[in-house]
Structure formats: C-alpha cells, structure tokens
C-alpha cells in the first residue's frame, strides 16, 4: 500500500485577483497537512509530480506525464472580466494550440440573413383568439443592438 500523502490543489491569481490558471490536484509526500509554499515552484510540487525531469510518457506510479498540469484562462481586457478563451490541462490543450474553447460577445444586427450575418434575430409573439386557441405571430425582427449574443 502507498504511504499517506497530502492531496494538494495549488491556486494562482493574476494581478486582478482572477484565477487565470486552474491546476490539477497532486499528492504531496510530506503528509503533514501544512501549507505547501513550494507547490508551484519549478522542479518541485506539482511539476515534480506530473512532469519530473527525465520521465517517460507514463510515470512509474501509473500517472501520465503532463508537462502543463493546468488549464489557462484568457480574459477580455475590460472591467467585465469575461472569458475570451479557456484551455485545459495538457500541452495540446493550452491557449495558442488551437484546441481551446473560445467565447465571443456581440450584439445582434438587423442585416438580413442573405447578407451573411448570423446575428440576425427573428421576433415572434403569440396571439390568443376568443376560444383560447394560440397561434404564433411573426413580429418581424429585433432591431440592431437589442440583444446580446454570446458565441462559443
């Protein structure tokens, strides 16, 4: 059986207090329950656990070698702190590698669909006759900049 270990999840914040990197948890051999000041120090802590120097693709513990054991988040440069791009743990899933989730924030347009604008929004209403029957009623389209559009 394995010796007792501390399960550690490092946290790192950017200058604006946002968690721009979210780290995977790791098992620390100290097993004393104390604060781990070296958790993010290169060559020790989380990097020694997931990416020890000279290691193969599969570590002897059965854990895969992960050179980037964190998910990075890029925020838009505004006070809204909205996410522009989100990565995941692993080198292939980092920002700049093309395998991330990207967010776009826009408002709708009143241009017709034939102009190639995918942010045009149709507006519908419901009419109820004297018998209580409901029918869908075309009320045109929403005017420009009346709706927020979030693309993922």
TrEMBL record:
Q: From start to end residue, where is composition biased (Polar residues)? A: 105-115, 142-152
InterPro entries from the xrefs? DUF6443 (IPR045619)
The organism sits in which domain of life? Bacteria
Instruction: Show the segment(s) annotated as Disordered.
Output: 81-116, 131-152
**Start and end residues of each DUF6443 domain:** 4-105
What the entry lists under Pfam families is as follows: DUF6443
Name used for this protein in its record: Type IV secretion protein Rhs
